[in-house]
Design goal:
The chain has 431 residues and is an alpha/beta fold. It has helices at residues 5-8, 12-33, 35-44, 65-70, 104-120, 139-151, 163-173, 182-194, 216-226, 338-345, 383-401; strands at residues 86-90, 98-102, 128-131, 154-156, 177-180, 206-210, 229-236, 241-245, 253-254, 260-265, 278-285, 296-305, 317-318, 323-324, 329-331, 334-336, 351-362, 365-374, 406-410, 425-427. It is built from eleven helices and 20 strands. The strands form five sheets. A six-stranded mixed β-sheet has the order 4-3-5-6-7-8, with helices on both faces. The longest helix is centred in the first third of the chain and has 22 residues, at 12-33. Bound molecules: 5'-O-[hydroxy(phenylacetyl)phosphoryl]adenosine.
Length: 431
C-alpha cells in the first residue's frame, strides 16, 4: 500500500530533477527572505546563480544547532510571523529552546511525509492509534496525531505518562497501533505484567518507535515480549518532527526525496561520503517555507542506501541511527547536553567544579544521576542542610532539563580527575 503511489515510486532520475528545481528555488528564496542566510551567503560570496544542480550543493555552507541558538527566536525564519501557524521547540544548552515555526504548507508536508511512512508500514483507516509521545512543544504527539487522522485511523491522544491508564485504554478500546519511545513501551509491557495482564492479551499489533536511540536487540526484546511488530521512526524538530519510518521490509527508513535532500558526511572533515559509508546525516529541506534549512547537520550517524527497496519505493534510505557525532544525550526521549547540566551546577555556589553524569536503564527506563562535589569553600555537614541542597540542585536541574535527575552530593576531592579531556558521562545503558 502506498499513500502517494506516483511520487513514492518515481524513478530516481525524475526525483533528481525535482530536487534540482527545488534547490534552485530554495537558494533564491533564502537569499531574499531569510536574514540569516542572506548574511551568510554574502559573507561567503555565494550568489543564487552559482547553484544550478545537485553537484553545487557542496558550495553551500552547513547550518548547525548553534546557528539556531544565535538567531533565536525568529532570525532563521523566511516568512513573516503572520504566515506562521504553529511553533514547536526542543530543549537547548542554556535553557533557551530551539524554536521551529511552521506555515500551513509546512504542516501539510510534514503530515504528508509521515502519512507515507505510516502507510508504508501498514497503518490504515481501520487502526486505532494510541499516541503516547508527548503532546506540546515536543513534536512527537501532534505530529503523529495529524498523520493518524489524515489516514483516517482513530487517534487516541493520551500523550506520555500515566501508564496504568495507557494499558487500560489499550485494552478497553482495542488499540491496534502504538506510537511512543521504545523505552516507554518496554516499561508499559512490564507495567502491564504488574497489573496482572499482558500486552499479548490486547489487540495491539504494531508499534512505531523512535525519538531516541534504540537497537536491533531492543526491537527483538520488544517483539518477543509483546508479540507486536516494531518499526523505527526518525525525525528532528528542526526538520519538522517525526518524518521517516521503515516500510514493511524493515531495511532502512525511507527519506522522502521530493521534500528532503540528504547527504552523509564525515563529521570531522565535512567531506561527502559514499553509499554504505558511516557518517553524519545532513539534510537540506526542499519544501519548508517558515524555516528552510540548508545542509542541516543533524549530528546523527547513519549509512545511506540508494538502491530501490523491495517494497517498490525508490526514495533513498538511511539505516537505523547508529549514534551521535556530538555529545548530546537522549534521556527518556529528551535531549540533554552535559553542558546544560554544568551550566546549572556552576550557578550554585555550594557545589564544586567536579561532577559526573551517570546514565542507567532501570526497569527499561532511563535514570540519570548527577554526582557533584560540595564546594570546599562552604562548610555543609548537617544532614538537613545536605538534604536541602540536594533538593535545590534537583529542582534547578528539573526546570532547565525538563526531566528529573537524582543528585548525589559527595565530599570535595572524591570524584575522578583527568589530565586531558574530562569524561563527564558514564552511560551504562545497554542499547
Ligand atoms: O525526537 C522527533 C521525533 C518524535 C522523532 C517522535 C521520532 C518520533 P527532537 O526532540 O528534536 O525530535 O530530537 C531529535 O532525536 O537528532 C536523534 O538524535 C534522536 N532520534 C530521533 N529519532 C530517532 C531514532 C524528535 N529513530 C533527535 N533513532 C535526533 C535514534 C533518534 N535516534
Amino acid at each position: 500500500m502506498y499513500w502517494s503511489p506516483v511520487i513514492e515510486r518515481m524513478p530516481l532520475e525524475e526525483l533528481k530533477r525535482i530536487q534540482e528545481k527545488k534547490l534552485r528555488a530554495l537558494v533564491r528564496n533564502v537569499y531574499e527572505y531569510s536574514p540569516f542566510y542572506k548574511r551568510k551567503f554574502r559573507e561567503l560570496g555565494i550568489h543564487p546563480e552559482d547553484i544550478r544542480g545537485l553537484e553545487d550543493l557542496k558550495k553551500l555552507p552547513f547550518t548547525r544547532k548553534q546557528d539556531l541558538r544565535d538567531n533565536y527566536p525568529f532570525g532563521m525564519f523566511a516568512v513573516p510571523i503572520s504566515q506562521i501557524v504553529r511553533f514547536h521547540a526542543s530543549s537547548g544548552t542554556t535553557g533557551k529552546p530551539t524554536l521551529v515555526g511552521y506555515t500551513e504548507d509546512d504542516i501539510r508536508i510534514w503530515v504528508e511525509s509521515l502519512c507515507r511512512g505510516l502507510v508504508s508500514c501498514g497503518v490504515c483507516n481501520e487502526d486505532i492509534m494510541q499516541i503516547a509521545y508527548g503532546y506540546g512543544l515536543f513534536t512527537g504527539g501532534l505530529g503523529f496525531h495529524y498523520a493518524a487522522e489524515k489516514i483516517g485511523a482513530t487517534a487516541l491522544p493520551v500523550s506520555a505518562g500515566n501508564t496504568e491508564r495507557q494499558i487500560n485504554l489499550m485494552k478497553d478500546l482495542g488499540v491496534t497501533v502504538i506510537a511512543c519511545t521504545p523505552s516507554y513501551f518496554l516499561y508499559m509491557a512490564e507495567y502491564a505484567e504488574k497489573m496482572g495482564t499482558s500486552i499479548k492479551e490486547t489487540n495491539l499489533r504494531m508499534g512505531i518507535f523512535g525519538a531516541e536511540p534504540w537497537s536491533e536487540e531492543t526491537r527483538k526484546r520488544i517483539e518477543d515480549k509483546t508479540g507486536i511488530t516494531a518499526y523505527d521512526v526518525y525525525g528532528t524538530s528542526e526538520l519538522s518532527g517525526p518524518l521517516f519510518t521503515e516500510c514493511v521490509e524493515r531495511d532502512g527508513l525511507h527519506i522522502w526525496a521530493d521534500h528532503f535532500l540528504i547527504e552523509v558526511i564525515d563529521p570531522k572533515t565535512g567531506e561527502n561520503l559514499g553509499e554504505g559509508e558511516r557518517g553524519e546525516l545532513v539534510v537540506t529541506t526542499l519544501s519548508k517555507e517558515a524555516m528552510p534549512l540548508i545542509r542541516w547537520r543533524t549530528g546523527d550517524i547513519t549509512i545511506m542506501e540508494t538502491e530501490k527497496c523491495n517494497c517498490g519505493r525508490t526514495h533513498p534510505r538511511i539505516l537505523r541511527i547508529l549514534g551521535r557525532s556530538d555529545d548530546m544525550l537522549i534521556v527518556r526521549g529528551v535531549n540533554v547536553f552535559p553542558s546544560q547540566i554544568e551550566h546549572v551546577l556552576m550557578q550554585i555556589p555550594e557545589v564544586g567544579e567536579h561532577y559526573m553524569i551517570i546514565l542507567e536503564r532501570k526497569e527499561e527506563l532511563d535514570e540519570m544521576t548527577v554526582q557533584v562535589e560540595l564546594s570546599d569553600k562552604v562548610k555543609i555537614d548537617k544532614p538537613a542542610d545536605i538534604l536541602n541542597l540536594t533538593r535545590k540542585v534537583e529542582d534547578r536541574l528539573r526546570v532547565v532539563l525538563g526531566i528529573s535527575a537524582k543528585v548525589e552530593l559527595v565530599n570535595p576531592g572524591t570524584l575522578q580527575r583527568f589530565e586531558g579531556k574530562a569524561k563527564r558521562v558514564i552511560d551504562k545503558r545497554k542499547i
